[in-house]
Design brief:
Elements lengths: L8 E4 L2 E4 L1 E4 L11 H10 L2 H14 L3 E5 L2 H12 L5 E5 L7 H11 L3 E4 L1 H9 L7 H9 L3 E6 L2 H9 L6 E5 L12 H13 L4 E4 L9 H11 L5 E4 L9 H12 L10
Parallel strand pairs: 3-4, 3-10, 4-5, 5-6, 6-7, 7-8, 8-9, 9-10
Antiparallel strand pairs: 1-2
Helix pairs in contact: 9-10
Length: 267
Amino acid sequence: MKAKSLLPTISIGEVSVSRLICGANPFSGISHQSYECDMEMRDFFTVARIKQTLKECEELGINTLLARADNHIRRLLAEYWNEGGTIQWIAQTAHEMRSLHDNIITIAQTGAKAAFIQGTTVDEFSLDNRLDEIRPLIDLIHSGGMAAGVGSHNPRVIRIIEEEGWDVDFYVVSFYDVITHDEAYLDADRHETVKLIREIQKPCIAIKVLAAGRTNPEDALRFAFENIKPSDAVAVGTYPKERPDEMRQNVALYKKYGSILRGARVS
């Protein structure tokens, strides 16, 4: 299975990553909308449907999946790869696992190309003044042969990590601080986030760009690609039950706005 043409890529460590990445919250029934929507997503996304979505992504030129390192995702990826799929995995640690250390070990064993500490976990450690406890986990990710990153919903946390000079290869940054603001999607947040992204030399993967389905995709993706760096990427999920051609439309929007590579600053 080969893409007709691979989308432009960025470098994360030694990994070439398409600037448009397939996000996977919907695969795990995480809608950031309601409990009912979560359940609908879980019912819809059978293993067969997820594999079909991944196949479509590859055919559209997307070479990377950003997904949780839970047992469900690890099992279906092993099945997908065994059947000839080639999409590469950037793994997000799963907070419900017994330990972050053990979770990272299984991530490496499964075959991820990169891994990052989940943003909610990083933010909680920061609030508890335990951020330094994350640093050995970055070393553990590297020891597993993977590019290493951290996520956050709060620009202040990323700035602390940058100022302390952590040995990270990339950041996963939410456009909206849904932790501090309790699932409120405030426009001021995304302006603060892209300001942060522009300040950082390391590649960033922007997430929650569509405000979990609350914004117009064209407006949201145009804003994202016009305001992140050329060395950054965007991860977006898809829910084809409601929008059967959503990923194809996202790729078209990337080609319309992402190829500009201008990274305009916002005030």
